[in-house]
Amino acid sequence: MRVLAVEDDTRIAEDLRRALGAAGFVVEICGDGEEAWFLGDTEEYDLVVLDLGLPGLDGLTVLKRWRANGRTMPVLVLTARGAWTERVEGIDAGADDYLPKPFRMEELVARARALVRRAAGQAAPKQAHGGLELDAVKMEVALNGQPVGVSALEYRLLAYMMLNRDRVLPPTEILEHLYGDEDSREANALEALIARLRRKLGPGVIGTRRGFGYFLEGRAS
């Protein structure tokens, strides 16, 4: 899942990158309000973590512009401790959740996971489709009740497909949400990743619709 973390404090920003990255998210960092508004308005993200106190353009204005332009990605707002008025303004402007500073990274990660699941219409932390099961908290995969060892990248792919299990996913979309800016986004890299997963999972799990993309086979549980 692709996350935009908008935070001008470099220490907090790097903490966000590490914590969310370890939880299976692909994290992009931005520390300026104008740039954040542009990125959120032109790129596709599964979640935005948005600090309200930003240089260039304040976070509340950024959020209002996104919503006015029809951008619907879930937004987790970070606010100063005790600033309840900011939290109310943020929610009224279209925020989905808020977290006051200082905060525990574990709580932020848990809220991030929950927001992404709810945006996909899936509230439970454990998701199942056919015989495939994913535990978003433990980042574990099972097939027909048996654990399957997967790499972090393989897990990210399965997690994104699980969140979008009701449709065929074009390769370009998967690449955008699977790899960071520093990683390869070539189609052959995705094909190799799919092939490795198919060897581990066997037939009947990841399907291909030629000319359209990939999807999870079987019925939702």
From TrEMBL:
Gene3D superfamilies: 3.40.50.2300, 6.10.250.690, Winged helix-like DNA-binding domain superfamily/Winged helix DNA-binding domain
DNA-binding region: 124-218
Domain OmpR/PhoB-type: 124-218
Biological classification of the source: Bacteria, Pseudomonadati, Pseudomonadota, Alphaproteobacteria, Rhodobacterales
Alphabetical list of SUPFAM superfamilies matching this protein: CheY-like
Extent of the signal sequence: none
Residues of the Response regulatory domain: 2-116
Pfam families in the cross-refs: Response_reg (PF00072), Trans_reg_C (PF00486)
Residues with 4-aspartylphosphate modification: 51
Keywords linked to the UniProt accession: DNA-binding, Phosphoprotein
Protein name: Response regulator transcription factor
Lineage top rank: taxon: Bacteria
CDD domains assigned: trans_reg_C (cd00383)
